[in-house]
Amino acid sequence: MRYFIVDDDTASRRMLEQIITDGDLGIVIGEAENGVEALPLILSTHPDFVLIDFLMPELDGIETIEQLRAQGFQGQFIMISQIVNKEMVGEAYEKGIEFFIHKPINRVEVYSILKKTVEQFRLKDSLLAIRESLAHIETANMTQRRRSVKEVVLSILNDLGIIGEAGSGDLVLLIEFLMNRKDSTAPLPPLKDLYEAVANDKKTDPMEIKKESKSIEQRIRRAIIAAINNLASLGTIDYTNPKFEYYAPRFFDFQEIRLRMKEINQDNKEMKKVKINIKKFLQVLYLETTEKFNQTL
């Protein structure tokens, strides 16, 4: 990913650049101290993401974004601000900004937000490829159904910020398996049976299936933990964010989310082990997918 940083504070620009570089999130292709200086540079370099300070002399962050959009810039914006109130957040949402970085800059928060934006960026390419494929290839109804289910699951995983996790592919296969059962209203099978059902699509030897089942469980567990971290980070930035309000209490024990938010606010380098309920997560993901999928029929 290619980033451009607009901030009148040199120390903030250096720190953001270091986080991007150290986290292998991409490269910083340019920077500016204010909006006036940034406009021609951004329009000529076409970065994927612009990290922009809200309060700047001459031209503030919102005004800079308005001028860039008016001149055809299609990249995404991430707002940097020391002061966040509902009015400012509302105005920023209207301009297409979904993410905020608080000052003073918190490394854990910044990395989590940038990682999520990268995942969303890649998801758009993935969804575009799916749409193009569906437009040019006529397949059986079941194949179309499976691809549609995959698209719905990916959109939910993207909202949770885990589209780039290794376990996301396992979650897609698992929900496809559940959706294709003869009795879709039946209770979820035991987790062991679900993992083996997904493993059967990849392996044939019984020992290999057993080994793959354990790997699937581990990948899914890591993906769920990542989702908790992403939602907690989102909640610390904006407690009223629609995605946080919708997904956090549905997929998780909200007390665990609150504890992780507290750790992020305190900038703890070593996070405590979080409790997760895999079966609850899968049940909610299945119900969410079923509801959204039926809306497209």
Q: Which class of secondary structure composition applies to the elements?
A: alpha/beta
* Total domain modules: 2
How many strands appear in the DSSP assignment?
A: 5
Report the radius of gyration as a whole number of Å.
21 Å
Overall morphology: globular
Query: Please, what is the average pLDDT?
Result: 85
The major pleated sheet works out as: 5 strands, parallel
- Percent helix among the residues? 55-70%
Number of helices, where a helix is a run of at least 4 consecutive DSSP H or I residues: 12
Helix/strand order, N-terminal first? EHEHEHEHEHHHHHHHH
Cα-to-Cα separation, first versus last residue: 36 Å
Strands of the widest sheet, in order across it, are 2-1-3-4-5
Beta-strand level of the residues, as a percent range?
A: 5-15%
Poorly predicted runs of 5 or more residues: none
Pfam families: Response_reg, YcbB
Domain Response regulatory: 2-118
GO biological process, one term: phosphorelay signal transduction system
Organism: Lederbergia citrea
